[in-house]
Automatic annotation (TrEMBL):
A GO molecular-function descriptor: hydrolase activity, hydrolyzing O-glycosyl compounds
Gene Ontology cellular component list: extracellular region
Secretion signal, residue range per the UniProt entry: none
Residue ranges with Pro residues bias: 369-391
Keywords recorded for this protein, A-Z: Hydrolase
Organism from which the protein derives: Oerskovia douganii
Domain of life: Bacteria
Cross-referenced PROSITE patterns: TAT
InterPro entries: Beta_helix, CBM5/12, CBM_sf_5/12, PbH1, Pectin_lyas_fold, Pectin_lyase_fold/virulence, TAT_signal
Protein name per Swiss-Prot or TrEMBL: Right-handed parallel beta-helix repeat-containing protein
Amino acid sequence: MTTPTAWQRRRAPLATRRTTLAARPASLTTPTTNTPAHRRLLLAAATTAATLALVAVATTSPEPAAAAETVSVSTAAQLKSALAAATPGQTIHLADGVYTGNFKVTGRPATASAPITLEGSANAVLRTSSGGGNVLQLTDADHWTVHGITVQNAQKGIMVDSSDHVTIDGVTVHDLTMEGVHFRTSSSYGVLKNSRIFDTGQDGRGMGEGVYVGSANTYSDTSDHVQILDNVIGPLVRGENVDIKEGTRGGRIAGNTFYGDGLTGANYDDSWVDVKGNDYVVEDNVGVGTTKSGFQPHQQSPGWGCGTTFRNNSSDLSGAVGSGRYAIEVTVYDAATCPVTVTSDNTVVGGDGLVNPGIPVSLVGGGPSPEPSPTREPTPSPTPSPSPSPTTPACTAPAWNAGAVYTGGATVSHAGSTYTARWWTQGETPGTAQWGAWAVVGTC
């Protein structure tokens, strides 16, 4: 039996009305066929049927969209083909295994309602054959998500170029000669979260940043509103854990754990986070180990490196060397033209303190901590002039000798006092006994 179509089902009420009309009494049935009245009735019925059909088509709800397509791949060749042909709403799933090559997505944008996802477990490993180039590069690829995979053994890990709303989630990136993840060429609203990045910058030039946003020495790269959330960056990141370049603004760095054991000072890498962009929020991060400072807003040129807020970050500067070892080292500050906000819930262990002198610390929930009032020096009470101690005369009398014979009136000195013999005496030590041979007459 043929199942009626949706259009046929919606015509059922019209057929029912026709059946009802046929069942009417003879006095009410249609005239004899081929009369003018009959023709008019047929024309009216046909017009009504056509109208109802149009209404049915106009009001029919669209059929539900087909389920999003999943493309499963297990070889490098299949992966390259899938990336080149990706369409919105598609998921490319990688089987566990090693995929060797330089993988590129170019000109395959998706949409917010139908993103494209590249996914696999941490055992789906993308790597280059020679350690050169980028492992994965997305260009003009809006609304892509990269999830779960491992990227390793290359010059650079994941590069995002001219692509907005790219999310990198739960990936592992390591063993690179340069940076791990880079949002550049005006790639805005990107997110890196729940990921691990370690062992970067293996060439020792200090250019192995964990995460890099923007481009150096240019202000045309407006990779704005990038968020770096809940990642573990380090150990052995040979460059800043996060490097934010001038020309970018409005991002957020939150909930990350930074290890600074890879910092060497090469290429000015002496902090976990270096912010040269504007209006960033840096909060709820934990950093351990650094050569100098924890967090640094820098001004590469006037008007940049301003407006950053640092709050509730925890810094362990144990082992930092030299001067200027601050959890938050603000290199340029002007309350009117280049403000930086440091709140009182930031904490520090070791080093020279929370923030360098001259930078106000804002109370959480309030304004800046007041400058402590100088302690008023008490008016000293006049020191009384001491009464002069009597001068003790020198012992001029000869010292007492136990073997000498002394007659009455003889004078000797002994143990700081002067004595006079009362009578003849020999061998009796001078003292203060009431009935002794010696009477004390003074001190010396």
